[in-house]
Specification:
By secondary structure, this protein is α/β, with parallel strands linked by helices. The chain has 11 helices and 10 strands.
Length: 253
Amino acid sequence: MSTRSKLTTLATAVCLTALAGVVNAGEITVVATGGPLPEVMGVLGPMFEKASGHTVKLSIKAAPAIIKDVKEGASIDLIVSGNDTIDALVKDGLIAAGSSAKVMQSRVGLGVRTGAPKPDISTVDALKAALLAAKTVAHSQGTSGQFFTTVIAKLGIADALKPKTIVVTGQPVGAVVAKGEAEIGIQQVAELVPVPGVTLVGPLPADVNRIIGYSVGIPGKAREMEAAKAFAKFIASGEALAAYKQKGMEPAS
């Protein structure tokens, strides 16, 4: 075969392979809960699209709404949510067998405005002192904020913090800190890290911290089952790990 013929044959094969990829590509309907996931999935989705040729259609909903949608047979190919949500769906037989897995986790952390002094929070006593010394302390109404209220109760400083506590709604806690409206912000590390103008001091001491885990699950009625499996596998890959670690997440333990 001549060199020209070989090149023609190779070009034809490449074209056929490309066309096959387009035919096999699908649109995956992914639903995730809030917290750090919109930021994390907003990065992982495009990465997977580039690597696979599939299209990711991402929506963000509260856990009760996701559970309701799955029970009503909504078209969902992949769910990324807190461990409790996925576990509940598995228990009800609504997740395809063997398709659920813990993939990442976050801890509760403390942040300050960039350029501000970083308080010592290396021990429980140091954290307690830092909170009492702060002029204002902000937290959310979500998982991390609810947990923080149990921490300050445990430390016996709930009453002392009450007059200077800001409960943030409708925006990240870090946004309030970045604007100088709160001296200290408490939220998941993965929610503080992406906010411009905020410096993460670190996670709270282990004795007063909580690991917040996230899982994936594929509904039994998923239309793009194979593509969803590929995305779930991608989320657990080293490439994805490097990306979401930059957002303050950790691999599931």
